[in-house]
């Protein structure tokens, strides 16, 4: 696996190609992936296997993508919904 660059909320982030997007967030010390739509509380990785939906982000314009199930590819653009 090689290091590649992705864009997260408009900022460049180095990530390992092929790793999960959640792993890239954790490696970049980004724990807040979205806010709860009702309470506004920050949400982040929880189950790590696609069951809880706490890690939903927008990837390349596609909303509702679970970061724990999505592999990093070069040039991907991610919005965390902050």
Automatic annotation (TrEMBL):
Keywords: Oxidoreductase
This protein's name: (2Fe-2S)-binding protein
GO MF, any single term: oxidoreductase activity
Record has Oxidoreductase as a keyword: yes
SUPFAM superfamilies named among the record's database cross-references: 2Fe-2S ferredoxin-like (SSF54292)
InterPro entries: 2Fe-2S-bd_N, 2Fe-2S_ferredoxin-like_sf
Keyword Transmembrane helix among UniProt keywords: no
